[in-house]
Write the structure tokens for this entry.
Amino acid sequence: MNLFKERKMLKKMRLFFFSVLALVFVLTPLSARIVHWRLAMTWPSTLKPLASPPLEVAKLVKQMSKGKFIITVDGKEKHRAPFGILDMVKGGMYQMGHSSSYYWKGKDINTVWFTTVPFGMTPSEQYAWFYYGNGMKYMRQVYDKFGVYVFPGGNTGNQMGGWFKKEIKSVDDLKGLKMRIPGLAGEVMAKLGVSVVNIPAGELYTSLDRGTIDALEWVGPGMDIKMGFHKVAKYYYTGWHEPGSEMQFYVNKRAFDKLPKEYQTMLITAMKAATFDMYVENFAESVEAWAKMKKEHPEIQVKTFPKPVLLALKKATDEVFSEYAAKNPLFKEIWADYRAYMKKARAWSMMMQYYYLKMSKDLNITQ
Ligand code: CA
């Protein structure tokens, strides 16, 4: 065989080989191929329980797909853009994201409804609104323009009102108080004369210790204990401003629509399971953390703001909401729907939970 024939033969063989490969690729069902996704979250990978839902979803879909649907989770330490999550998922740099809706209030004020709002619903009420009321419908509507599908992604439960170095006895005590309190609650506090400051998480403890700030809010005992605030402020106020903070999963629409149906189902199922688990994990961590704090720091006083302070906070909240509603028709519509649902749901929450807890307190049954 001369060189020319040999080359021709080789060319034919190569063509045949690649044709077979292409045929195999086309005939292989999509579900048999490995799908590799990336997820970016606002939190560092070690910040549990906030970082738990994405890691749990990655673990579950890998198991359910027998290793064929892989999600790599990048924490803040990797992508360095904790508040760029929505943009990165929208742009397709990441197929998925995990963050909290109210961080995007600068993009659209209506995103606040899907985290929590001051004097709003408890987690049970809010989940009922999401899954069986109009919550998910509005969430999809608000996020449609960002090119993402959005799903609940874990709840912190009712957050504590924060750590204060001095007791708050009247509305006047709030005037000039320097406090770290973000979001809508910060806008409400500002109306009452609080000087609202924004300090990076890593500097909060020192700021509180040195008196650069007089108060701050974080989450609840489970997450607060890791920050050490209980060592430098002794008044721990009960919550009013974040009664059920929900995280969210964001999924790029094009990426999701391209997934085989069974992978879509796996993903949705895994997100729902991880969402429930974060709520439970955070509850359990707070159970342990509060028992430890109370024992090691008996000087901590759990307080509820006096009624005139709470009434002033409620009035300021209504003012903030009314101002947004006047400018934004969708805000007005969601607010009306949210309020109507909360009214119905609260009646049942009171019968189901409040009176049971009140009875158990009256009878001292945990003694
Ligand atoms: Ca908080």
In short: The mean pLDDT is 94. The two ends are 97 Å apart (CA to CA). The longest helix spans residues 261-296. Residues 159, 217-219, 242 surround calcium ion (CB under 6 Å).
